[in-house]
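Running co-folding for 4AD.
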Amino acid sequence: MEPSDATYAVHGWVRTKRDTKSVCFFEVNDGSSLAGLQVTIDKAVVDLPDQITRLQTGCSVRATGRLVASPGKGQAVELLCESLEIVGASPAETYPLQKKRHSFEFLREIAHLRPRTNTFGAVARVRNVLSYAVHRFYQERDFVYLHTPIITASDAEGAGEMFRVTTLDLDGLARSGRPVDASLDFFGRATYLTVSGQLNAEIYAGALERVYTFGPTFRAENSNTTRHLAEFWMIEPEVAFCDLSCTMELARDFVVYLIRTALERADDDMAFFDTRIEPGITESLAAVADADFAHMTYTEAIDALEKSGATFAYPVEWGVDLQSEHEKYLTEEYVQGPVIVTDYPKQIKAFYMKQNDDGKTVRAMDVLVPRLGEIIGGSQREDDLDLLTERLRELGLDEKLYWWYLDLRRYGTVPHSGFGLGFERLIQYVTGMQNIRDVIPFPRTPGNADF
Ligand code: 4AD
Ligand code: MG
């Protein structure tokens, strides 16, 4: 902004205040950017003693005045205050956000106030910019945005990590000793919160060719880690007439598009993450956006891990699932950048993945990135009716529950592929924030559903 004779009005929340005999300075932030606006009260010009007394960190204000060139450091202009209204006071003795830097653990306990800090304001703005970018990316490529259900009867991942949804009187049933009868429940059957919109997306990809979902998903896995939430947001594109390599290309283009958007459209916030959270992050992200992603098969990855000479808490041999320590080694040491790992053993992947001719592996792909490990999981889907039916039987899954999914292979089946990007993992990757609980406004984790 430039100095000007016009009168401006600002409203927002006071971050800091400094009062001397002749002037009172305070910084107002309205959340529109990292930088606040300095407001100066020249006591020789305006007489506002009551307001100055009530003006405290955390209070909400409305101030008017002229923008003048700032003699102080750190800002080009400041507002020379003509009038000031304290909209909502904030008692300094009890306001939980004091000037000093608070730990993220502490801020999680005051999730109703943490968006007023620099870090959480910046995270919220980057999240917003990237949400919009998700839609832009797919809309520009003629994908149809599909709303898939939150309440579902099917376990899309077949992993049994679902939250039950019921209106049955569980306490009453427990007291009476009668068993739970799902046929008497609201939907006449057992229902759950969805773990993925994929199976429903496959239905629409089988008609509209290119669709994507962007919604909340739920996992009742008891993982207390820095990269797991019980409720997280996922983007799932699904594309007909598309094989594994086509979906790998889409995944790479998508991640690069999101990185570039964050660097271009959230540059101030990204500069903040670079200085305060993860030094060097903007440069390393810019380099990732300009390079191809490495690709290796699971078998090659296991080979690299076995030859690494590193000691892992979880020993490596062909057939084991990759743990976060293995993913870190592959991205940070071996490739030193993002890597797409494909063709995993079929025993460690979901029932719907297309089987390779070797009888051992499936056309799965995970995109791994430094600092985090898996950010995307996807695959080509099994489009052969017989092979899919056989696989459901092998895994002891009830074919009757998946009748409509099998129908898609019965009528006009087509090679198709897709993936899921965990939106919070993406935000972690782009901002450098270490704990996934700090990149979603209100985290849900085992034992915690406050706010
Ligand atoms: O690898 P996942 O389980 O894949 C699926 O759900 C497929 N149905 C996706 C598809 O092909 N359409 O999950 C996809 C991504 C993971 O790579 C990870 O980024 C994220 O979702 N994710 C989680 N993020 C936060 N907390 C959790 N508990 C997560 N579980 C998975
Ligand atoms: Mg996965």
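Result summary
The mean pLDDT is 96.
The first helix runs from residue 49 to 54.
Job closed.
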